[in-house]
Amino acid sequence: MSAKPLSTWCRDRLDELLGDVSMLVHHESPSSEKALLDKTADSITTWLRDRLGAPSRLTRHEHAEHGDLLEVTYAGSTEAPVLMIGHYDTVWPAGTVDGWPFAVREDGTATGPGIYDMKTGLVTGVWALLALRAFDLPCPTVRFMFNGDEELGSPMSRPHIERAAPDCLATLVLEPGVGWDVKAERKGVGIFTVTAHGVEAHSGNNATDGASAVHALAEIIHRLAGEADHERGTTINVGTMSGGTARNVIAGRASCLIDIRISDQAEADRIDAVFAGLRAGDPRVRVEVDGKWSRPPMRLTPESRRLFGLADEVAASVRAPLEPISVGGGSDANFVSALGLPVLDGLGASGDGAHALHEHVIVDDIPDRVALVAGLLRRIAE
């Protein structure tokens, strides 16, 4: 059976589906607002029960500071589950939706804070199960993991994802796609702070007694920029820097915040060695490096390539074949890939504007994206 009828079924119920999207958009869930995150998790739990019935198992992994992780399993035709991951936290501050409510526009897009990244993705995953049930088609056991700390790097939910993924047949991540295509590779992400500790002195009377942390940091930044290797996919960006206390004081302290993206672990090891050997030209300046690799790189491994092949066959029956896209941003798919397990990302909405005021999804694409996920689940179950 082609997956196209699943899209048609969903298209006939598009207004109802968009009602779910609107509901989630209007539940504001900024990553730093614990109370709002808890309310959103409560609403998602209720919504899942309303749409899919009582789950076989529901565990809410609570955290005092971050959004709770919802781990919800619906039994299907397989003993081992398929893991479906999505996040309900967003980058948008509380109150944003008051001036920017959910809306379907005349150009065929729908907009609202968090609609693309990634509340429509959560709806896509749930409606994929509904579509399979409507046609009484095989569906594997599905374990949803919806977390509320992804935009912060998933510090609380990462161990749970890494614990669950090895016991699953595959992992599908409902982050937004790239047009019709899906994300097969993502760069690893490193966040580091470099601090130079110098010697303060009066810049006029005692210039030679001082050792400028600002000057030393400028030299270090120039060196680090030279370690980027665009041919190998390694980018290094000094996003912010600060230092010194006054114009006429030789700076005693300066620091910068660095974002590093890498395509393979060998580059991460190389950059680690660079940081380990980092020294200032003036020996009186002490250099301190703090930070870590928050996400390992996601690679298109043979296991993931087989999963992509199934998705590609389904996509061709719905609309068109897929391209396995590589992107610079990280997601929870990176953690699964680093374990050597099959994972595919970007199965959520098509659109644009993540983290931006032009954030939107393409409404006409949503039924096809639901059919893609549903068809892939069916192929895994067969």
UniProtKB/TrEMBL annotation:
<dbReference type="GO" id="GO:0016787">
    <property type="term" value="F:hydrolase activity"/>
</dbReference>
<dbReference type="Pfam" id="PF07687">
    <property type="entry name" value="M20_dimer"/>
</dbReference>
<dbReference type="InterPro" id="IPR002933">
    <property type="entry name" value="Peptidase_M20"/>
</dbReference>
<dbReference type="InterPro" id="IPR017150">
    <property type="entry name" value="Pept_M20_glutamate_carboxypep"/>
</dbReference>
<dbReference type="GO" id="GO:0046872">
    <property type="term" value="F:metal ion binding"/>
</dbReference>
<feature type="active site" description="Proton acceptor">
    <location>
        <position position="150"/>
    </location>
</feature>
<feature type="active site">
    <location>
        <position position="89"/>
    </location>
</feature>
<keyword id="KW-0479">Metal-binding</keyword>
<keyword id="KW-0378">Hydrolase</keyword>
<dbReference type="Pfam" id="PF01546">
    <property type="entry name" value="Peptidase_M20"/>
</dbReference>
<dbReference type="InterPro" id="IPR036264">
    <property type="entry name" value="Bact_exopeptidase_dim_dom"/>
</dbReference>
<dbReference type="InterPro" id="IPR011650">
    <property type="entry name" value="Peptidase_M20_dimer"/>
</dbReference>
<protein>
    <submittedName>
        <fullName>M20 family peptidase</fullName>
    </submittedName>
</protein>
<dbReference type="InterPro" id="IPR050072">
    <property type="entry name" value="Peptidase_M20A"/>
</dbReference>
<feature type="domain" description="Peptidase M20 dimerisation">
    <location>
        <begin position="185"/>
        <end position="275"/>
    </location>
</feature>
